[in-house]
Design goal:
alpha/beta, Rossmann fold, 2 domains, 5-stranded parallel sheet, two-stranded antiparallel sheet, 13 helices
């Protein structure tokens, strides 16, 4: 039996955009021994369905071995087979390898309709203290063949191992184990489901109370991780980066917090504020952008992502509280930003966001 980990079996990281939810979830997974072979990752989107997540019959192409080699020409025959989705694949791996832990990561869980995507298997999310599902659900008829094929024909399991698994789950034989597998679904203790969500994004689906109560939630604070060293960036943190805005060295993290303060004063919800990773650390540089406009990578990213987000999304109803020229169009604000920098925003004290140390390390991580 796999050794349990000191983390919830069903866990959702949530918070404002750019707070590093996916990054922190990945770090948590690595820290608890989930490697690539024991982890699956799927991203929900508005048209994502139960059949994609769990499994369904789909067209399947295979080589027609009866045709002569000279006649094949790479053509395929089409048939229909039950194709397991990431949920069923992870479930079967966990059931048949009880000595290992398995993790299914769902990115942006509320960008699809969670109740529709999970369907009846959401009942399995009720877990006992041991991590095993409190209740089971019937195996759909079309899923049974996929389970039988996995159990009988997987090359990874030896006869003795199958017997050991059968005994572990209380079956007297492989045959009885197969009957149990193909009649009821029940999540084993070594299967973990973790997810991320932005609770205030446009186009997301609400979660009902019945679905929510089956998960543990972990909030990612708006400034969480801004002083944390990043392994992929030589151990630097977001607070280290200084960029040039209209000729002035500005510390990005201070500017981000100043913009968040403007939005807070305008009564913008916290989950619409800017997280430390709202723009990627790789864009916090004064190197020339590839667009040929003569602007820096940071300037292009700021206008395309941060300024557009403030203008059309988070601050759409609060232009007078955010912008010095609240009548300006987005394109006019971009032009003003090129010439006036952060002066386009209302009430930001420039001295509070400059480096203040005269290190001249513009466009690169600050080394103070």
């Amino acid at each position: 039996m796999a050794e349990g980990i000191d983390q919830p079996h069903n866990l959702i990281f949530f918070g404002a955009p750019g707070t590093g939810k996916s990054y922190q979830l990945s770090r948590l997974a690595e820290g608890n021994g989930f490697d690539e072979e024991h982890t699956r990752r799927v991203t929900f989107y508005p048209d994502y369905t139960y059949s994609q997540f769990v499994g369904s019959y789909r067209p399947y192409a295979y080589d027609d071995e009866e045709r002569s080699a000279s006649d094949k020409r790479g053509k395929k025959q089409i048939t229909y087979e039950y194709v397991p989705g990431p949920f069923l694949d992870t479930y079967l791996d966990a059931i048949t390898h009880p000595n290992d832990n398995y993790l299914l990561v769902v990115e942006e869980i509320n960008r699809a309709n969670p109740a529709a995507v999970f369907g009846d298997i959401f009942q399995l999310l009720d877990r006992k203290p041991s991590g095993i599902s409190e209740y089971s659900v019937a195996v759909p008829r079309d899923m049974k063949d996929a389970i039988v094929n996995y159990w009988l024909y997987t090359g990874e399991l030896e006869y003795e191992q199958k017997n050991a698994i059968a005994q572990f789950y209380g079956a007297a034989s492989q045959e009885e184990m197969l009957v149990k597998l193909t009649s009821r679904l029940i999540l084993p203790a070594n299967m973990y489901l973790w997810a991320t969500m932005n609770s205030a994004d446009q186009g997301v689906f609400p979660m009902d109370t019945a679905f929510k109560r089956r998960w543990d939630f972990r909030y990612m604070g708006i400034n969480e991780g801004d002083h944390e060293p990043m392994k992929s960036y030589d151990g630097l943190c977001i607070d280290d980066y200084v960029v040039n805005i209209a000729g002035t060295p500005i510390r990005w993290n201070r500017l981000r917090k100043a913009l968040n303060n403007l939005m807070r004063d305008a009564r913008v919800n916290e989950d619409k504020l800017l997280g430390p990773f709202f723009i990627a650390p790789s864009t916090l540089t004064d190197d020339p952008a590839a667009n040929g406009n003569g602007e820096s990578v940071f300037t292009a990213a700021f206008k395309d992502k941060v300024l557009l987000y403030l203008y059309e999304d988070a601050g759409k109803m609060h232009h007078p509280a955010l912008f010095a020229n609240d009548k300006a169009s987005y394109s006019e604000l971009c032009d003003e930003f090129d010439h006036s920098g952060v002066a386009i925003f209302k009430g930001i004290d420039i001295s509070s966001i400059t480096t203040g140390d005269g290190d001249g390390n513009v466009g690169h991580p600050d080394e103070e």
